[in-house]
Amino acid sequence: MPKDPTLHAPDSGIARLLEIMRRLRDPETGCPWDIEQDFASIAPYTIEEAYEVADAIERADFDDLRGELGDLLLQVVFHAQIADDRGLFAFDDVANAIADKMVARHPHVFGDESRDKSSEQQTRDWESIKAAERAEKAQTGVLDGVAAGLPALTRALKLQKRAARVGFDWPDTGDVLDKITEEAEELREAAQSLTHDKIEEEFGDLLFVMANLARHMKVDPESALRAANAKFTRRFARIEAHLAAAGKTPDESDLAEMDALWNRAKAEERGDA
C-alpha cells in the first residue's frame, strides 16, 4: 500500500488524525478492535479521558495536559467516525454544529449586541438562549435536557440550578444547613431500623442536599471531593512512610497508631511538626 502523505506528515494536524481514525476503522484493512467498537463501548473511555484532562489541570502538569487533550480529541474523532460509517454525520458536521452554537450564543461578540455587560448578565443571557434552544427541541420542562449520564453529583448540581432559576430554592445557606441536619438525623434513624434500600435512599437525600450546599457556597463539589481524595491519599502515604521507617506496614499497625500518624501528617503539612 502506498504511503499516504497526510498520514506521515507530522504537522498536518486534525486532517492527519481523521485519516488515522478512518484507516483504523476500515473494515478490510483496519484494526479489529477499533472496527468492533460502537458509541456505547467507547463512551466509558470518553468519560475517563475527560477526567484525566481535569486531573492534569488540577496538577498544573501542562505537558501532560497536552497529551490528555489529545486523548480526549481522539474520542471525539472516534465517535464521529463511527457516525460517518453509519451515514449519520461526519466530523465536519460536529465542528460546524458547535461553531454555529457558539456564534448564536455570543451575539455580543459575533452579532449586533453590545459587549457592555457583566459576566453575570452574560450568564443570564446564555441561559435564556439555551432555554430557547430547548424549547425548539420540545424540551419544555424545567429539568429537561440535563443529561442522565452525568456523574450523579454533577447532575444533582445541574438539576438544582435549573430549579433555582424558577424560584424553587432555599433563600439562604442557613436553610440548607438546617436541611442537612434533618437529613443526617433521618439517615441515623434509617440505619437503626430500616431496610438497606431505605438507608440508601436516605443517604442519597443527604448527598443531594450536600450538593445544594456546595451550590449556595459557590463550591464545585466534584472539585472539592477530588481535593479531599488527593489530601487523603497524600496523608495516608505519609502514614505508610512513617510506618516503613519503623520497619512496619499498615497491616502490622493498628487504628490508634495510624490515627496518631495521621495527625502527625496533618501537622507536617501545616508546618507545625
Automatic annotation (TrEMBL):
Q: Which reaction equations make up its catalytic activity?
A: ATP + H2O = AMP + diphosphate + H(+)
Q: What's an example of a GO molecular-function annotation for this chain?
A: ATP diphosphatase activity
Tell me which EC number(s) this protein carries: 3.6.1.8
Q: Name one Pfam family in it.
A: MazG
Query: Which keywords appear in this protein's UniProt record, sorted alphabetically?
Result: Hydrolase
EC category name: hydrolase
Q: Which residues form the NTP pyrophosphohydrolase MazG-like domain?
A: 37-110, 177-235
Q: Which GO terms describe its biological process?
A: dATP catabolic process; dGTP catabolic process; dTTP catabolic process; dUTP catabolic process; response to stress; TTP catabolic process; UTP catabolic process
Q: Which CDD domains match?
A: NTP-PPase_MazG_Cterm, NTP-PPase_MazG_Nterm
**InterPro entries from the entry?**
MazG-like_dom (IPR004518), NTP-PPase_MazG-like_C (IPR048011), NTP-PPase_MazG-like_N (IPR048015), NTP_PyrPHydrolase_MazG (IPR011551)
- Identify the PANTHER family for this entry: NUCLEOSIDE TRIPHOSPHATE PYROPHOSPHOHYDROLASE (PTHR30522:SF0)
Homology family? Belongs to the nucleoside triphosphate pyrophosphohydrolase family.
UniProt protein name: Nucleoside triphosphate pyrophosphohydrolase
**Name of the encoding gene:** mazG
